[in-house]
Write a structure and sequence with these properties.
Distance between the termini of chain B: 9 Å
Strand content of chain B: 15-25%
Strand order of the largest sheet of chain A: 3-2-1-4-5-6-11
Number of helices of chain B: 11
CATH topology of the largest domain in chain A: Rossmann fold
Structural class of chain A: alpha/beta
Largest sheet of chain A: 7 strands, parallel
Number of domains of chain A: 2
Number of strands of chain B: 23
Order of helices and strands of chain A: EHEHEEHEHEEHEEEHEEHEHHHHHHHHHH
Shape of chain A: globular
Shape of chain B: globular
Distance between the termini of chain A: 59 Å
CATH superfamily of the largest domain in chain A: NAD(P)-binding Rossmann-like Domain
Largest interface: A-B, 49 and 41 residues
CATH class of the largest domain in chain A: Alpha Beta
Structural class of chain B: alpha/beta
Radius of gyration of chain A: 27 Å
Oligomer: heterodimer
Helix content of chain B: 25-40%
Number of helices of chain A: 17
Largest sheet of chain B: 7 strands, antiparallel
Strand content of chain A: 5-15%
Number of strands of chain A: 13
Radius of gyration of chain B: 23 Å
CATH architecture of the largest domain in chain A: 3-Layer(aba) Sandwich
């Protein structure tokens, strides 16, 4: 008989990819416990046997929404990054404990817990994240459940949060290397972590064991940072800093201004410990097909670039929406705008076109100046295309269409005065824009009101 | 009982077929028949679609935002993405255009799947060049009215298009149309006398009463997006009715290229191209009826000559209505909130009396309710923000009058073929507007400007758009009805003078094109042929 599974953390970094790869139809029922504001679109269109449970795992009432007859719990929800000790405890240990206890009363038998390699670190002074995960592991061991624990090393791939930090480091003109960057890392690709999870679930491996999961390559942090930097087209320069310096400084500051520190003692643990996976039966069976370090870094850098592009598009949507209708954009508007940019040719006609687009996104005021100018002197600008399409999106989207349809004032005199004022305001912006932009456009030697025959976007 | 092969499923084809089926004939209809989707969320209004659809932007703008009008477009609207199938051409249907920009359709139901329902009977003046008068076609107008469900009122416009039987009571006017109508009623004596202009209700193929499985208009505001209750008539409704007959066979996916004929000029077969399998198919024919639309039928005719005789001939006399879109702002509506839950298309029509009654100028008045605002904003001489402010406050007062001019058959306007390198043929369309058209356009705009001014509305002349020839999709005139018996013409009952078993039942046979929409007459004429000849 098919099992029913409860999955926490489905909207997280690993969860989102895993759900796309997991054969959901293999289960009788799949329950995804995700915060209401955090349901990605990909989770909204799954099979009929998939049920989304909206809830926060730290909510004391969350057990009420956990259905009966769940056989397996896949627990991925966790707080990572920088948080207070109590927060780590609450999310990574207490919440997990409550779900297991509540699930056990409703028939839960098996648990797959996603932990961390950091639990094994020997030097982990004030590394609250690893302590909370360790406590959760210990609880599970004594819970009477059939279980498996996975301890992935550093997980790379598109959207990897840990890679973001290393990438920032690798982008510095002088890269500080704590302890000379000698600590060994053994990153693993997101896809390989997912396939490991799938294997355990498919083969029902719940023997009370703990499995380290790492990729095929072990390298020093220095080598790792060098590879990232080189892939970004840079020549890395390193500055070795003896470990005792950051440790002694951060040890003091960590207790006083913990929340303001860019790097905590816990986060420094990666530089002080080797993050390597011990061989085990699962690794032996699967690791032959795992991605190598170069592929992992490439995917991560690409993911980072995609992410930056995405956030730029969202910011652009917000500024332009504010300009067009004076309101905040909705998540749906932003999603559709990003989709439009990804599906359309958004290269600039020329340097001036690029200049206008770049300036317009600075603020709604700049958008107005650039739009006013484009309307008369550069009708084929990318900016006009973007604004026209965004307006079409706004007038066909829930919420924002209502504003566009609503007349506001019904007093004809108010309307006419307002119209006069806005007309004058528009004329003023047009005048200002002509003053600055027209010479610039002439200097670039390119017209733009009529697209020349054969002239494409660059 | 004979077997008739009908090419095309547009308004002429389906009504011709239905009449034959009712008489017990065997009808085989061959069609490319591209089809679209059924309307989504049938119970939702226009705005409810925005609220309730999972991805409304995809529905309204398309998967790839294709319904967004470009920056250099002067269009006031675009066809919705899910209606694009109507204008999809099969691979390799080459056309060379000179002065004509036609819309071609290979869809089930043809171009009328995207029409706005305007249905006006031709009067005796309009039919002067036809081999029959109004009294002879009137029974068929009545029959079509009953079949499709036609709204009409006996009002001031009846002087231009006869008031006939089987008309349904009108729909409620939207507030803007009502406002124009009320002022007209007060001033009509002067407007009629001084300007020779008349206002009345549009004749529209929309139900104001339930008819079979079709429901009366529920004012959902979704006309342009595909009427979910089938109250706005489209030819697929009649095609579906035909499909209920056992003596009807519908073959889709086939583009008929030409017909073959024997030495006695009797058509023996039609040769088609399976658009999916890309293979040739031959269908034997007893009697053939071309109803593929003027351009489609003419091309089949031209290709057949070329294949058999090796001759490229010309079919002269192509006609189409010149259309002028004149937007207007009704000052009395400024400051009023528009109601999206209303009939979206034209509810009023306007007629200009001219010295020559045949040159009557017809206009259809559409007030803006649920149309997209984005297309007109692209051409406004303002930045988007100011344009949006203006648009929000003037939305309820915006409207557009679609002015139509009549057309006559002229030798300069013809369809012919050119042979391409691969041994195939390319359709060539040549069109030149009539001499003096500029004057007529100026005359009509001047009249409209004055008329709307008297109704309290302003036409900003810089926003007037002269649509290219071909845009009105009222193509006709290439193989006209004539009593002469000359080649490249048809008999008064549309039997070919070139081939003994060929009928041409679409607009190709019209010897004159009045300014009124021709679709209603296409349907009536097709039924007239079926009644007279079979």
């Amino acid at each position: 008989m098919k099992s029913s599974i409860l999955i926490t953390g489905a909207s997280g970094f690993v969860g989102k990819t895993l759900i796309g790869k997991l054969e959901l139809s293999e289960f009788n029922k799949v329950y995804l416990l995700v915060p209401e504001q955090d349901v990605p679109d990909a989770l909204k269109k799954l099979g009929k046997n998939v049920v989304i449970l909206h809830g926060d795992i730290t909510d004391p009432e969350v057990h009420k929404i956990i259905p009966d007859n769940i056989n397996i719990l896949l627990h991925m929800a966790a707080i990572t990054g920088k948080a207070a000790k109590a927060e780590y405890e609450k999310v990574n240990f207490e919440a997990f404990k409550d779900i297991v206890i509540s699930g056990k009363q409703k028939g839960l038998e098996k648990v797959l817990f996603i932990s961390t390699i950091a639990v094994k670190f020997s030097k982990r002074n004030r590394y609250f994240y690893s302590f909370s995960k360790e406590k959760a592991e210990q609880f599970l061991d004594g819970s009477g459940m059939e279980y498996s624990i996975l301890r992935p090393t550093m997980i790379l791939g598109s959207g990897s949060p840990v890679f973001k930090g290393f990438s920032m480091f690798a982008g510095l003109p002088l890269i500080p290397l704590f302890g000379g960057g000698k600590a060994i890392v053994q990153p693993v690709h997101l896809d390989d972590v997912c396939s490991t999870i799938i294997q355990i679930l498919t083969k029902s491996i719940f023997k009370g064991d703990t499995y380290d999961i790492g990729g095929p390559d072990k390298l020093s942090i220095r080598e790792f940072l060098k590879k990232i930097s080189e892939l970004k087209g840079k020549r890395p320069k390193f500055l070795s800093i003896p470990m005792w310096i950051p440790v002694s400084i951060i040890s003091v500051l960590d207790r006083i201004i913990y929340s303001f520190l860019p790097l905590t003692l816990g986060q420094l643990a990666t530089f002080r410990n080797d993050s390597v996976a011990e061989d085990n039966i699962i690794l032996k069976e699967l690791s032959g097909g795992f991605s190598d370090i170069n592929a992992m870094i490439k995917d991560s850098v690409q993911g980072e670039l995609d992410g930056q592009k995405y956030y730029r598009a969202v910011r652009e949507c917000r500024v332009f929406t504010k300009y067009l209708i004076g309101k905040k954009s909705t998540a749906y508007n932003e999603k559709k705008y990003v989709e439009f940019l990804s599906k359309t040719d958004t290269t600039h006609l020329n340097g001036f076109d690029k200049f206008l687009s770049g300036l317009a996104v600075k603020s709604p005021l700049f958008t107005k100046i650039c739009d006013a100018y484009s309307r008369f002197f550069f009708q084929h600008s990318l900016l006009r295309k973007k604004l026209g399409t965004l307006f079409a999106i706004l007038e066909t989207s829930p919420v924002t269409y209502r504003y566009i349809d609503d007349i506001g004032s019904k007093n004809i005199f108010t309307i006419l005065i307002n119209l006069g004022f806005r007309g004058a305001w528009f004329a003023f912006h047009l005048f200002v824009s002509i003053l600055f932009f027209l010479p610039l456009q002439i200097l670039t030697g390119r017209g733009g009101n009529k697209q020349q025959k054969g002239e494409g976007r660059e | 009982m004979s077997k008739i092969t009908v090419i095309g499923s547009g308004p002429s084809g389906v009504h011709f077929a239905l009449s034959l089926l009712k008489k017990g004939h065997l009808v085989e209809m061959i069609d490319v028949g591209f089809s679209g989707e059924t309307p989504v969320n049938p119970n939702d209004s226009f705005n409810e679609l925005k609220e309730n659809l999972e991805d409304p932007v995809k529905y309204f703008l398309g998967e790839n935002f294709e319904a967004v009008v470009g920056t250099d477009s002067a269009s006031v609207y675009e066809f919705p993405p899910h209606k694009q199938y109507i204008f999809k051409n099969p691979e390799g249907y080459d056309v060379e255009l000179h002065g004509f920009e036609p819309h071609l359709s290979f869809a089930r139901g043809g171009l009328a799947e995207a029409w706005t329902g305007g249905s006006y009977a031709f009067n005796d003046t309009d039919l002067e060049d036809f081999p029959f008068g109004y009294s002879e076609i009137e029974p068929f107008y009545n029959e079509i009215s009953e079949r499709i469900g036609l709204i009409g009122v006996d009002d001031d416009l009846s002087r231009f298009f006869p008031y006939h039987k089987n008309l349904l009571p009108p729909l409620d006017l939207d507030e803007h149309s009502q406002s124009l109508f009320n002022i007209y009623e007060k001033k009509k004596d002067k407007l009629n006398k001084n300007l020779g202009m008349y206002l009345g209700r549009s004749r529209i193929a929309t139900l104001s009463k339930d008819q079979g499985s079709r429901k009366k208009c529920d004012y959902s505001g979704r006309c342009q997006w595909g009427c979910p209750s089938d109250s706005l008539y489209v030819p697929t409704i009649t095609l579906n009715e035909c499909l209920n007959y056992k003596n009807f066979k519908y073959i889709s996916g086939i583009l008929i290229k030409h017909f073959d004929y024997d030495n006695n000029n009797r058509i023996t077969a039609v040769i088609g191209f399976d658009v999916a399998k890309k293979t040739e198919k031959v269908f034997k024919v007893e009697t053939l009826a071309l109803a593929a639309g003027t351009i489609g039928s003419s091309r089949i005719f031209l290709d057949s000559f070329l294949r058999k005789e090796g001759k490229i001939i010309k079919l002269a006399g192509l006609m189409d209505n010149r259309q002028i879109l004149a937007p207007f702002i009704n000052l009395k509506m400024i400051g009023k909130q528009f109601n999206p839950d209303s009939y979206q298309y034209h509810q009023l029509a306007v007629g200009i009396d001219t010295d020559d009654p045949k040159s009557y100028i017809h206009g259809q008045i559409t007030t803006l309710k649920t149309g997209m605002m984005q297309p007109p904003f692209q051409s406004m001489p303002l930045d988007f923000k100011t344009g949006i402010f203006l648009g929000r406050h003037l939305h309820s007062s915006f409207g557009v009058v679609n002015i139509n001019l009549c057309d006559t058959r002229r030798d300069d306007n013809y369809l012919t073929l050119s042979q391409n390198n691969e041994g195939g043929s390319k359709l060539v369309i040549n069109y030149k507007p009539p001499e003096g058209e500029d004057k007529t356009i100026k005359f009509s705009l001047k009249k409209m400007g004055k008329f709307f001014g008297k109704l309290g509305a302003v036409i900003p002349m810089f926003q007037v758009q002269l649509r290219p020839m071909g845009a009105s999709v009222h193509y006709s005139g290439t193989i006209p009805m004539s009593g002469s018996g000359n080649p490249l013409t048809v008999s008064p009952n549309c039997k070919s003078n070139d081939f003994s078993n060929l009928y041409i039942v679409d607009g190709s046979t019209f010897p004159f094109l009045p300014s009124k929409n021709l679709t209603f007459t296409l349907m009536a004429n097709a039924v007239r042929i079926a009644d007279a000849e079979f």
